[in-house]
Design a protein that fits this description.
- The longest helix has 35 residues.
- 29% of the residues are buried.
- It contains 13 helices and no strands.
- The protein starts with a helix and ends with a helix.
- It is mainly α and 278 residues long.
- Helix 3 packs across helix 13, helix 4 runs antiparallel to helix 5 and helix 7 packs parallel to helix 13.
């Protein structure tokens, strides 16, 4: 009897959590196809006769901000951040994973400490640093900052996975005359594909859904809008056209939501690969 009560209570909690997550998504999807008057009168209602894709088309062609360009800018950020993060974190993780001194462990702890520091706490110091370097409000400055935020999770994933790869592979490569850098890129890195895919997925979602950092680091003066800051641009100072806001929200979250649903097995597989390998 107690097990059944526990099972039903657990199911109830899960259903409540699902409702909390799905209700906002439902509101966005439904209201993206409705006029502003219908949204104000009955935001939860569905009038099949009044639904129209014209509001999505209007959001795509808004004169105030270019949503299509925002998609392109965000995709560019995603590619640059993932590439730079891999180039920096990959070799560093290899050195730490194969190191045996106490300094390698200390260095790993320094990287992992970044997992416990909220990115918002770093915004003000980062602003001073970027201004000093002349990178405030520029694409390189934003990419460097976003890449820095990805390093802790990348190091955490890569080091754990590399430690599961037998050292005998490194020794065999060294006997053949390969240096450490060549050993990593030609021998170890191809074996890291599952964990690299996991890291890329997590970083992609993080960069795509980030609002605070592009809004502050880039700013409206840069003229660069990401998909999330374009949503903010749809909010007026005194009034907001809901028939533009909700379609813009849907356009912003739909790609990353579909991407996560398709790739969620890759995330779980990559996180468990290091634990079951070897």
């Amino acid at each position: 009897m107690s097990r059944r009560i526990f099972r039903w209570s657990g199911a109830g909690v899960l259903a409540l959590l699902a409702a909390v997550m799905l209700v906002p998504l439902y509101l966005v999807v439904v209201n993206a196809f409705k006029p502003a008057s219908a949204i104000r009168q009955n935001p939860f209602g569905i009038d099949l006769g009044g639904l129209s894709t014209a509001y999505l088309k209007s959001a795509l062609s808004s004169p105030d901000y270019n949503v299509t360009r925002a998609f392109g800018v965000t995709v560019l950020f995603v590619v640059l951040v993932n590439a730079l993060s891999l180039l920096l974190a990959g070799p560093a993780a290899y050195v730490i994973a194969r190191g045996t001194s106490v300094w390698h462990k200390v260095l790993l702890l320094v990287f992992l400490a970044g997992l416990f520091i909220p990115g918002q706490v770093l915004v003000i110091p980062v602003i001073y640093v970027l201004r000093f370097l002349g990178l405030m409000g520029t694409l390189p400055g934003f990419v460097l900052y976003e890449t820095t935020l990805t390093l802790p999770i990348s190091m955490f994933l890569y080091v754990g996975y590399i430690r599961s790869i037998p050292r005998e592979l490194d020794e065999a490569a060294q006997i053949d005359g390969a240096g450490r850098l060549r050993t990593f890129w030609q021998i170890v890195f191809p074996l890291m594909r599952p964990i690299v895919v996991t890291a890329v997925i997590l970083h992609t979602i993080g960069v795509w859904t980030d609002f605070v950092n592009p809004q502050i680091v880039l700013g409206p003066s840069s003229g660069l809008y990401t998909v999330m800051t374009s949503v903010y641009a749809a909010i007026g100072l005194h009034t907001t056209d809901l028939s533009v806001l909700y379609p813009t929200l849907l356009l912003a979250i739909a790609p990353v939501l579909i991407f996560f649903v398709i790739m969620q097995r890759k995330i779980v597989g990559g996180l468990t690969a290091g634990a079951t390998k070897g």
